[in-house]
Amino acid sequence: MKKFFKIMIIGLLLVIAAFYFLVLPYTVKLITDYDRYTFDYVLSDTAMITKFGIGENRDPADYGYPNFKEVDFQTLADGINLNGWYVPASKEGITKTLMINHGRTSNRLKTMKYLALVKETGLDSRYNVFIPDLRNSGKSDDAETALGYEFAEDITGAMKMLKDNYGQNEFVLWGFSMGAMASAITVNRPDLVEFAQNEGLKVDKLILDSPLSNIYATTKAESENMGIPGFIFDMSFNKFDHVIDDWGDNMKFSYLLNHNPLPTLILYGNGDSTTPASILEDEIMGLNNVRAELFEGADHVQLYTRPEYKDRYTQAVNNFLRK
């Protein structure tokens, strides 16, 4: 009998060890890791080109910006090499930059189409534009991400580079999906806020399209769809939380958009299963600094590309940036 219990205890310990050292790291990697979408990957696939909504366009010159510059820079903290397009304003002396930040499984090819909106509305006379490839995307280095926590370091690094190279010190952050969460984190994460203040970098407004608005609620819902038991998800999320300096509870709009209440425009669709509208609406309820535009039936990051919504989307962004 003693031998049986000894074997049973050893077996139980082995199961626990396997769970902790194999299962939990795997589930955490589901949160932090994803395929890198390079230019070649996107441009070699006609379905991806259609999904990105870029047609035959390949860089800002194809949208009427022949004087754009491709620049290399680094993220703020960990030396990862990044790349992006800087598009100078049509007027001299402009010190405000509109930074357009893509989301997960994307790159700057997907966000460059908004240059058409900027030119059509004449916002190119008010803003320079910067469109980066954040880490693990496009022409930037491979790297793990953390649902916007580390993207925020890339955005801050971009602002620092734009100040040093082009004299830019005021910014509007226009983010999509995980890039929207990252934009909101940028103006709230204490170390990044302190760095920006010391460098004289100021963010005036946020535009958030199809945003990831609560990382716990959204990943919890996805884990349930995948059939992952709740106790495994909670243990995995706690382990992930340690990766992001125990800041996971702050990665939600009810905190981020209230803690630093910048003027914020949110554009979202209730046909979005990736970042559900119900989670977003709960997060922004009662926030007076937030203007939300709902696009009925629109899918994730597909608002501007739907013909019936393109004019309304354009007008909402134009009006918000001209206030």
From TrEMBL:
Highest taxon, organism lineage: Bacteria
Keywords: Membrane, Transmembrane, Transmembrane helix
The AB hydrolase-1 domain, residue ranges: 97-226
Coiled coil: none
Annotated TM spans: 7-28
PANTHER family: ALPHA/BETA-HYDROLASE, ALPHA_BETA HYDROLASE FOLD-1 DOMAIN-CONTAINING PROTEIN
Protein name as annotated: AB hydrolase-1 domain-containing protein
Organism: Roseivirga ehrenbergii (strain DSM 102268 / JCM 13514 / KCTC 12282 / NCIMB 14502 / KMM 6017)
